[in-house]
Amino acid sequence: MEFAFILLAFACGFGAKLLGLPTLIGYLTAGFVLNYLGYKSTEDLQTLADLGITLMLFTIGLKLNVRDLLKKEVWLGSISHTVIWITFVNLVLAGLAWVGLEIFATLDFFTHSLLAFSLSFSSTVCIVKILEESGEIKTRHGKLAIGVLVMQDIVAVLFLVVATGKIPSVWAPLLLLLFFIKPIWAKILEIVGHGELLVLSGFMIALGGYQLFELVGIKGDLGALIVGMIIAKHVKSAELSKALMTFKDLFLIGFFLTIGFSALPTLDLLLTAILLCILIPVKFLLFFKLFLMLRLRARTSYLASLVLSNYSEFGLIVVALLVSLGWLTAQWLVIFALAVSFSFVITGLFYKSSHNQYTKYKDLLRNFEKTERLKEDAYIQPDDAQVIVIGLGRVGKGAYTSLNAIIGHKVWGMDADPMRIKNLTDEGFKAMVGDGEDVDLWENMDLSHVELILLALPSIDDICNITEQLKHAGYKGKIAAIARYEDEIQPLLDAGSDKVFNFFTEAGIGFAEESLHLLPSRNLTNKD
Within 139-266, where are the H helices? Predict the structure, then answer.
């Protein structure tokens, strides 16, 4: 692979970070710059891009609960949105043809419908990257967005079967055997340990699932997703996901670069792409209204709709197929590549401040909520809580256990992952499902008796956002936070934390202090 690819990707990603923008915007820019400078995409780059998407879908599967797909707000919301969107966009495109825009006037009703269908999908790559960077994959709105994406992927597979005439092999039913060999994979994951063999096993399972589905005529990416779902409940699934994260993020840079290599636009094609992006607010409003009708809270509906409001890389696949069949001219591939790229930028920019947006307009948005709430959206009141630990991963769980040993039942835990909370409550923890960045949660909770809130989260942005939401809710107690790196301490203090603990330093001190208890007191002497 050309060194220029790495150099431009780093430079543009670094520039985006300095400007406070998502790095994916920088990678998209790098692709177009490289294309403008005369570079061409290579097989190596395409391989990295494909591998990144496969690993991403596999890691999604590791975090996905099949029951989430069966919820009405997921399957009905997704299907309803697709049908209404295709109808609306079809009418818009027909209207543009009627007023005489040449590029639309040459298309018939059937082709308009296929273009509308291509625009109905949201980008799995863009959305997952944004949700992972913000630590919101397992939040209520994050799981809703992922569920909708999975439903769209299923529709995509069905479309490709019909459009290409590629019917799955007669051997496809044998894929059901994957569920029966699950104990074998479970045993392997237990034995491989925690080093490079664990990472290698993740690659093997993800790529193996991809190849198996391809062999029987089914989209390989769907195979990576499904094998991830099969082993999602394994005790090492979370560790495996974290181990693959760096590789996945690195390979996905190749995907963003390849979009820029699609083609260079003319002014007419650029304006047409911008015209298609003007429809994105309609996509947002349609998702928002449907989610509210399905009794979701305004905040969940707003955040999920906002992150879903973009166009998908699958649209490029559909358009490329239509071009190969002679139904569209090649210029439409350029238009879609631009529209998809612009939509990524729009989502990246707007979602970055999404929580502040909701806080600002929450009183208006709540007016659209249904009075009857879904059961899992009801607020829990930790009436006797004196201390709340937010984030019940390894650090948060350890903090809860230590505090519980000291002050007993007055400690509560909170985490956005319902499955984690279920497992912990089964173990006897006093824990509740909650998103710390949810201002509605804090405003509906009695915080008068809460004296201390511990923020045991990996993302500094999440901690800062939660601190801000607590201020909005009028919290008067103390806030303690965990920092992974030295340069994170001061920003957390500036954001409002009363005390920040360096995870690695404090862990070493605690380890030393606890270890000293193993020595007889007579052997403890001060030495110069």
Answer: 140-164, 177-180, 182-191, 196-215, 220-230, 237-260
- CATH of span 379-523: 3.40.50.720
Strand bridging mode 499-502 / 478-483: parallel
Indicate the pTM of the whole model: 0.81
If DSSP states are collapsed to H, E and C, what string results for 446-514? CCCCCCEEEECCCCHHHHHHHHHHHHHCCCCCEEEEEECCHHHHHHHHHHCCCEEEEHHHHHHHHHHHH
pLDDT at 528: 47
Is a pLDDT exceeding 90 seen at residue 292?
Answer: yes
Residue 189, burial from CB neighbour count under 10 angstroms (0-12, 13-18, 19+): buried
| Segment 169-177 mean pLDDT | 83
> Tokens 């597979």 identify what position?
157
Which of left, alpha, beta for 389 (phi over 0: left; psi -120 to 50: alpha)? beta
Q: What is the pLDDT of residue 514?
A: 59
Delimiting residues of CATH 1.20.1530.20 domain(s) in the chain = 3-366
Q: Are 437 and 448 in contact (CB under 8 A)?
A: no
How far, in Å, CA of 73 to CA of 67, rounded? Answer: 12
| Paired tokens of 428 | 């006897």
Q: Is 3.40.50.720 the CATH classification of the domain at 3-366?
A: no
Residues of the chain with CATH 3.40.50.720: 379-523
